[in-house]
Write the structure tokens for this entry.
Amino acid sequence: MEDLIFLGAAKKDVSIGDFEFQLTTLSNREQDMIFKEALSLSEKERLMFFKKGILALSIKKINKRLLSSYLEEDTFYARLDLVEGLQQSIFEFLFNEIESMIAESSKLLTAENLKK
């Protein structure tokens, strides 16, 4: 079952200065959680919340340590707080990497690849 859940997931290590971030694409469950949390926000606030939420759940490791080891409690909002503390340029760079991973992952799942 675990293989099925991670089928199509992409993982990438991204280095910025002395830091290495391990990023992964999100599952439907993780995306749904972000959308549900965003429902209470105004339309103007939602877009940025989606981006922050996606990045918060996409970062799995920093310098080969699980992100959870940097947090007092590994919750969505603790991860969100960490992401909100990043410099805007770092945030945008990492988010762009995730978008690139999603696009690449989608290309791999072409009709021809699915037939194999």
